[in-house]
Amino acid sequence: METFDYVIIGAGSAGSVLANRLSEEPATRVCVLEAGPKDWHPYIHLPAGFIKTFHMKSINWAYQQEPGPWTGGRSIYAPRGKTLGGSSSINGHIYNRGQRQDFDTWAQLGNRGWGYPDVLPYFKRLERRVGEGDETYRGRDGSLTVTTMDWQDPLCEAFMAGAMSLGIPRNPDYNGAIQEGVSYAQRTIQNGLRVSAATAFLHPARKRPNVDVRTHAHVTNIIFEGKRAVGVRYIKGGKGGTPVEVRATKEVILSGGTYNSPQVLQLSGVGSPELLGSLGIEVRHALPGVGEGLQDHYAPRSVARVKNIRTINELRRGLSLWVEALKWATTRRGLLSLSPTMVYCFWHSGETTESSDLQLTFTPASYKEGVQGQLEDEPGMTIASWQQRPESRGYVRIRSADPFAPPIIQTNYLVEELDRRVVVAGMKLARRLLSSSPLAPYYAYEDFPGPKVQSDDEFLAAATERGTTTFHPGCTCRMGPAGAKWAVVDDELRVHGLQGLRVVDASIMPRMISANLNASTLMIADKASDLIRGKTAPEAVRFPVQP
Ligand SMILES: Cc1cc2nc3c(=O)[nH]c(=O)nc-3n(C[C@H](O)[C@H](O)[C@H](O)COP(=O)(O)OP(=O)(O)OC[C@H]3O[C@@H](n4cnc5c(N)ncnc54)[C@H](O)[C@@H]3O)c2cc1C
Question: Is 55 a catalytic residue?
C-alpha cells in the first residue's frame, strides 16, 4: 500500500490550503484525494461562468435538499464544487470574513484559540488585499488576491445612495473594524479571472515533488486500526472504478465539506449508533453529533422591474454579449469579469439589535424564480436579504451504505421563530431600499414579492414560496469540548475519541457566522495547518481598549 505522512480527503477550499502548508517541508509527503476532475474548464475561471457552473454536473455535486416545514414543500437545490478548488471554484467570489463577535462566540463555546484576536492573523496571512484597508485588519503578502468590484454602474450607485438616504452609512471596508454599512463587494478576482483556493494554494503546491494530487478519486471510507485512522479507501475513476487504498503514517484529514465530511464519517462507522445500525453499518465509534447541527443562510430575493437603463439581463444577450466578450478578451474587464452580486449592505433588523443581523446584496439583474442560474429576459434588479446568524438547525445523514448515494440534507430553514422574524424584517428593508428616492428614476414596479404583500404573514408566505440557499452550509462536524454532546472535533480539530483523524473545513464551525463562508474556511485550514505541525500560533492581535 502506498504510504504518505498526510492523506487529505477533498481538494476544496480547506484541502487546498492544507496541501500547500503541510507540504512546505520537503520531507513531508502529502496525498490529496479529490472526487472531481481537474479544474480545467474555462467557465471555472471566467467570473461570469458562475451562471454556467451552477448546474454543471461534471464539476458540481448538484445536491437537492429535502423539503422543509418552511420551504413551501420545495426541495431547494444545493450546488457544491466537485473539482480542484471545490466550492471555491464555482462560488460567487465574494470575500467576506464576518464579525468579531462570530469568532468570539466560537471561543466562548469552549474553543480555545478561536476568538477574533486569535484568528485575525490567519485571515491576514492568507490575503493579498489590493485596494483600501487598514493594516490592523488587512493582509498584503498572502496568496489570495482580494480586489474590490470595479464596474461603475448607475444602478449600484443609486442603490448605495438609497441606503444612505435610509441612514445606512457607506463603509469603506466591511472586512475592517466594523461590518455595518453599504459597500461595493470585495471579490477573489484578479485581472478578470477567478482566484480559487486551487489557483491560490493547490496549484503552487502541486509543483512540489512531495505532493500527490489524485483526481477522480472518490473516497468511500477511512481505514481504522482500533480507534486510529491509518488510511483511506477510494474508488479510482468513480462509480464502477477500481478500489485503491493509501496509508497515512501521521494523519488522515477530512476536508470533504459540510455535506460530504459527515457522509464519509458515517460511511466509516463514525456517527450516531441508531443511524448506522438502521443502515446495517458497523459502529466503529459512536459520535452522535456527526452530521447534526447543519445551518445555512436562507434568502428570499426581492425583484423590481427596471426602466430607463439597461440591466445585466439585456447586456448578456445578442450583440451586447459579443461586445462584452471582446472587452474581456482585450482588457479583462466588463460584464464577464463580474461576480453575481455587486453591492453588499449589512444592517440590523431592529433598533435594539447590537450588530448587523441582516445581510443584503444588490445586483442590477434578476433571475427566473429568484434562483441564481438563469437570468430573466426583462430588465430587473434584485436584493437578496438574509439573516446573518440563524438559530435553526438541521442535519446531514447518509441514506444508505452506498458511498455514491447523495446524503439526506435537511436544513430546517426558518423553523425557529426568530429566524422567521428577521427574514421578514430583511424583506421589508429590501422593499424600502428598492423604493428609495435615489432609485426612483429606474424603479418601474416591484415584481416580487409584489405590492399585494403587506402584512408580516404575507411577507413570510412569500419567503417560504421563493427563498433559496445562499450556498453557505456549515456546522455538521462542530468544534466543541469533549463534554458537549453535539461536538465532533476538539479545538485542534481532532475527532473526539479517535486518533490520527481531523476534520478541517466549513463543517467544523460551531455556529453560523455573519458572512459567506469561503474566507473563514480558508482561515480554518490555515490555522489547522499550524495545529497539525505543532507550530506556534501567530501573536493574537491586540485592539485598543474602547472608551
Ligand atoms: C454556488 C456557490 C456560491 C458560493 N458563493 C460564495 C461566495 O461568493 N463567497 C463565499 O465566501 N462563499 C461562497 N460559497 C461558499 C464557499 O465557497 C464554501 O463555503 C467553501 O468553499 C467551503 O469550503 P470547504 O473546504 O468546506 O468545502 P469544498 O470547497 O466544497 O471542498 C470539498 C471538496 O471535497 C471533495 N469531496 C467531497 N466528498 C468527497 C469524497 N467522498 N471523496 C473525495 N473528494 C470528496 C469535493 O469534491 C470538494 O472538492 C459559495 C458556494 C457555492 C456552492
Answer: no
